[in-house]
Design a protein that fits this description.
The chain is α/β, with parallel strands linked by helices and 551 residues long. The chain has 19 helices and 20 strands. The protein folds into three domains: 184 residues, Rossmann fold (3-Layer(aba) Sandwich); 139 residues, Transcription Regulator spoIIAA (2-Layer Sandwich); 147 residues, Transcription Regulator spoIIAA (2-Layer Sandwich), CATH 3.30.750.200.
Length: 551
């Protein structure tokens, strides 16, 4: 790891990932924010300790409570409990209104607070919504220049910076069934907070900074683009990262050259890797340089034999795809319009090309799901296993189908943000059905996510400020189950609702309109699909207005 900068604004910042170091360094957003901070102020990094001890910064071995600012990068909503652990160990009060002038300011960014900041609101002094490096220097400068002011005055100063959200400057009235009655900005706080996105990301790109191990082990991580235009109605990444911005081949080529000096393989990261217009050239570039290729997942309908042969040549032995639903009807409802035959053909082509294993992702409890849809998961997995075995004969060895089954959890800022979470008993029964049918099948490996984890995830995904209070109780009690039983209206946090209801995150202007999301929800129940995003600068304003990228 590189040394941190001592130059720039007189503000000491510790960038904290509230999970283990290997996981935190696997997210390129963490690398990018560190680079931006380190260029303008004294910046260090820290992670959740594996032994539960007091965390100290990585470079300076400094107690976290001694920094001016603790900046958390939050990927997973449930890591709020780890945030509590880190702040407690650092001697920093958890609730922001209990902190004094001597305590560090505490802020956060990342996809979790960008989707729905409200469960974090009572714990964070401020949040940065979206791609935070864009206005980072503005608020760093204000905090550094206004060190003599009290906390409230300093926060009021940065509230005017684009993308910055200061929760204490908003009054929220919550009524029965956890519905928001009103929301009012205080003082000069803006009524809406813009989600930041880099219009020029296609030119700048993003790649790994720290030369340390990630969950991708021997791969150097490079981002192929931001955003995904497929519009799967359950998927947060498909809406919150819009507009689609593919990094140019010239920039990717330079990053590949640098990465292969440090690692044997290149790990490509992105929501729409297969849709990159030059992706075969990217694979070829890596292989020509003698490197291996790792790809997080592939999309049915966007892969062909040539692409798969390139990936196998690059050392990829397991292809990951996400059918999401077992039946074609339910896939159309979630806007994933691929047939069973297309999936089977893709798997057969992959195995013929030399792929040893196939990994599948499915969701249960999706809106509109029926009993036949769960049974269809079993049927599709068996059919794909048979195709794998048949196509493996030419290679004289057979791999396996690895099927991961997860409960659907409604996510903010998606068409399914109004949907309810399926009851835990129903999810458990569906999991049990799949287990009974597939657990003993040859060449099938099953991974079932526990249904009990769905409720806390949903609470923190679509809950209001009171959801954060419940999370704090779970942290102090050490048990989500006890807290859930304590609240008779626990499920009210993810009860669903109507178009006119005030949602906790409605004050965020993400660029995608609420009206568009509602129309997509209605199309789901009608079984209608929506075509993917048009190419860049095609003049499209279908979901919102992204000037400079879409028109």
């Amino acid at each position: 790891m590189s040394e941190n900068s001592k130059n720039g604004y007189p503000l000491s910042v510790c960038l904290v990932y509230p999970n283990l170091q290997k996981l935190g360094l696997s997210y390129l957003g963490f690398h990018k924010i560190y680079s931006a901070l380190n260029a303008i102020c004294d910046c260090d990094i820290a992670f959740l300790t594996e032994d539960g001890g007091k965390p100290r910064s990585n470079f300076q071995n400094k107690p976290l409570g001694n920094f001016d600012l603790l900046a958390f990068s939050i990927t997973f909503e449930t890591d709020i409990l780890n945030l509590f652990s880190i702040l407690t160990a650092a001697g920093v009060p958890l609730e922001q209104d209990r902190r004094e002038h001597t305590h560090p300011l505490v802020c956060a960014g990342g996809i979790a607070p960008t989707l729905n900041p409200e469960p974090f609101a009572i714990f964070l002094d401020f949040m940065v919504i979206g791609e935070g490096e864009l206005t980072l220097e503005q608020w760093v400068k204000k905090l550094a220049d206004n060190r003599a002011l009290d906390r409230a005055e300093r926060l009021a100063e940065i509230a005017a910076v684009d993308g910055v959200y200061v929760p204490s400057l908003y009054e929220v009235e919550i009524g029965e069934r956890q519905k928001i009655i009103s929301r009012r900005p205080l003082g000069a706080a803006p009524e809406k907070v813009n989600r930041l996105y880099d219009r020029a990301f296609a030119k700048s790109g993003s790649a790994q900074v720290f030369d340390e191990e990630t969950v991708f082990k021997d791969s150097w991580l490079i981002e192929t683009g931001k955003g995904c235009g497929q519009g799967c109605r359950f998927c947060a990444a498909g809406f919150i990262y819009r507009p689609v911005r593919h990094v140019g081949l010239e920039k990717l080529s330079a990053q590949i050259d640098e990465g292969l000096k440090l690692r044997k393989r290149v790990g490509l990261i992105g929501s729409a890797i297969c849709e990159h217009p030059r992706i075969k050239d990217v694979y070829s570039k890596i292989i020509e340089k003698g490197g291996g290729v790792n790809v997080s997942s592939l999309r049915v309908g966007y892969v062909d034999e040539d692409m798969l042969k390139l990936l196998v040549k690059g050392g990829l032995h397991t292809m990951t795809i996400a059918p999401e639903a077992g039946s074609e009807r339910l896939r159309r409802a979630v806007n994933k319009d691929v047939s069973d035959d297309e999936i089977v053909t893709t798997v057969g082509t992959a195995v013929s090309a030399g792929m040893a294993n196939i990994k599948l992702y499915f969701l249960i409890g999706l809106p509109g799901e029926q009993a036949d849809d769960v049974t269809a998961i079993v049927g599709l997995v068996k059919r794909l296993r048979d195709e794998l075995l048949n196509k493996s004969k030419q290679h004289g060895r057979a791999g396996k189908i690895m099927a991961a089954i997860n409960p659907f959890v409604p996510k903010a800022q998606t068409p399914f943000q109004w949907e309810s979470l399926a009851p835990q008993k129903e999810l458990k029964n569906k999991m049990a059905e799949i287990r009974s049918e597939l657990a003993r099948e040859s060449n099938v490996e099953l991974k079932l996510e526990s249904a009990k984890h769905a409720a806390p995830q949903a609470l923190l995904s679509v809950g209001n400020r009171n959801a954060g209070k419940i999370a704090l109780e779970a942290f102090r009690d050490g048990n989500w189950k006890i807290v859930q039983k304590r609240y008779s209206n626990f499920n009210a946090f993810f009860h669903g609702g109507g178009m006119d209801e005030i949602l906790p995150w409605d004050f965020i202007d993400s660029g995608v309109t609420k009206e568009y999301l509602w129309k997509e929800r209605e199309k789901s129940y009608q079984g209608k699909t929506t075509a993917p995003c048009l190419p860049e600068m095609a003049g499209c304003k279908r979901c919102g207005e992204f000037e400079g990228n879409c028109y």
